[in-house]
Write a structure and sequence with these properties.
Elements: H1 4-14, E1 19-23, E2 26-29, H2 30-39, H3 59-62, E3 65-68, E4 78-81, H4 83-97, E5 104-107, H5 114-126, E6 129-132, H6 139-146, E7 153-156, H7 159-168, H8 170-175, E8 180-185, H9 192-201, E9 206-213, E10 217-223, E11 233-237, E12 242-245, E13 250-254, H10 266-272, E14 273-274, E15 277-286, E16 292-297, E17 302-304, E18 307-309, H11 311-318, E19 324-334, E20 338-347, H12 355-363, E21 374-377, E22 394-395
Helix pairs in contact: 1-2, 1-5, 4-5
């Protein structure tokens, strides 16, 4: 079979009444989905599936579509996904993470970007069921969805969403331990303490940390609930992916799941593509077992006084301080200190912590040049639409 449409038509013959999609009380069976495909519904103007008018344009499922990069380091660019790329990404995930026809996958994110959309593809490939939620705004709705089936439940959650679940819904999550087959995270680095906590709550669940982007597609994945729980590890290359580290430490990828270039942007394509490899802005290493380790995004490295500082290291240290729930380290312009580090943090009590206490605690864990000069208590951290922390430069008074 050449594309996902072929697989859907096969599922429609074998299990015609099985739900392919569930949105609230609405159900779309594989038979209905196949009929919509055959009738040519869901064209590029965005027609929806039968029973779900305007909710899920079919062209957003199967390829020959344009996806935008997240634009965290500049203006978003456009990547054209062909049906062959879609199928290669689906096969990567099915083989690496064990999707089956019994999989019921809960999706909480928008389907106009790769993070959530790419989870539809493997489910359609194997004939499982996708449950769509309107974000994670209603945690109770998420847990109700995760009770959809007695086994085979799975979901994709960005690290910030996992952190929220660990903080406010850990008991409910633990109660689902026998039903959850696997959880995948990605889009941003996951704090190691959250990784360890999730392993404790779900000892028999596969917990995947995946390396992927709009440009590269699904590249590597690592089940960190393997007894090692390696921080920063994103695993071995998936079925169709190849990975290497360039001479200057960047992660480069190639394979049928990856782009061949940006749409209508030859200059950006020339900067990113080298001899068929997509050279990313991410820094990483490959260990002796062939596992990829994500170190930092080049654009996130902060240069203060000639010292190059990884903000992830500062944040990891800050989260070890009692009373700090979450945080982000950014570069700031201060009238007093000039260019310096600022730690923006959320406290577990909702009240500011003593700045000298924060500084002393970090000084015990970090090099002197890595200790922030400025500290700002915030109610919540700013994030992008898909949960990535916004690392914008701060101008402090």
């Amino acid at each position: 079979m050449n594309n996902l449409q072929d697989y859907i038509r096969q599922h429609a013959m074998r299990t015609p009444d099985k739900p392919a999609f569930v949105v609230g009380d609405q159900r779309v069976s594989y038979k209905q989905l196949a009929q919509a495909l055959s009738a040519g519904r869901g064209d590029k103007q965005g027609s929806g599936l039968p029973g779900l008018p305007g909710t899920l344009p079919i062209h957003r499922l199967f390829g020959d579509i344009t996806l935008s990069t997240t634009g965290t380091t500049g203006k978003p660019k456009q990547v054209v996904y062909t049906s062959q790329m879609v199928l290669a990404n689906a096969e990567n995930l099915v083989e690496a993470q064990g999707f089956t026809a019994d999989t019921t996958f809960v999706i909480c994110g928008p389907l106009n970007h790769l993070g959530s959309l790419s989870k539809v593809w493997p489910v359609m490939l194997v004939g499982g069921t996708v449950v769509l939620l309107d974000g994670l705004k209603d945690m109770n709705a998420f847990f109700r969805a995760m009770h959809t089936a007695p086994r085979g439940m799975a979901t994709f959650l960005v690290p910030t969403a996992i952190h929220q679940l660990l903080q406010w819904g850990s008991d409910q999550l633990a109660a689902l331990a026998s039903a959850i087959d696997f959880i995948e995270t990605g889009a941003a680095p996951m704090p190691h303490d959250d990784m360890l906590r999730l392993c404790q709550l779900l000892p028999h669940t596969r917990l995947y940390n995946t390396y992927a982007s709009t440009e590269t597609g699904i590249v590597c994945t690592y089940n960190y609930n393997d007894g090692l729980c390696l921080p920063g590890c994103v695993g071995r290359p998936t079925r169709h992916a190849q990975v290497k580290i360039t001479g200057d430490g960047h992660i480069a990828c190639r394979g049928p799941m990856a782009m061949s270039g940006y749409r209508d942007d030859e200059a950006a394509t020339a900067r990113t593509m080298q001899d068929g490899w997509v050279v990313t802005a991410d820094l990483g290493t490959l260990d002796d077992e062939g596992r990829l380790h994500f170190k930092a995004r080049e654009g996130d490295i902060i240069n203060i006084g000639g010292f190059k500082i990884d903000p992830l290291k500062v944040e990891e240290a800050a989260r070890q301080i009692s009373g700090v729930d979450d945080c982000i380290c950014v570069e700031a312009d201060s009238p007093l200190f000039g260019p310096c580090l600022e730690l923006q943090y959320v406290s577990t009590s909702g009240q500011p912590l003593a700045k000298p206490l924060l500084a002393r605690s970090l000084a015990a864990r970090l090099e002197p040049y890595e200790v922030p000069r400025l500290y700002e208590h915030v109610e919540q951290l700013a994030t992008t639409f898909n949960g990535k922390k916004l690392r914008t430069r701060s101008t402090s008074k």
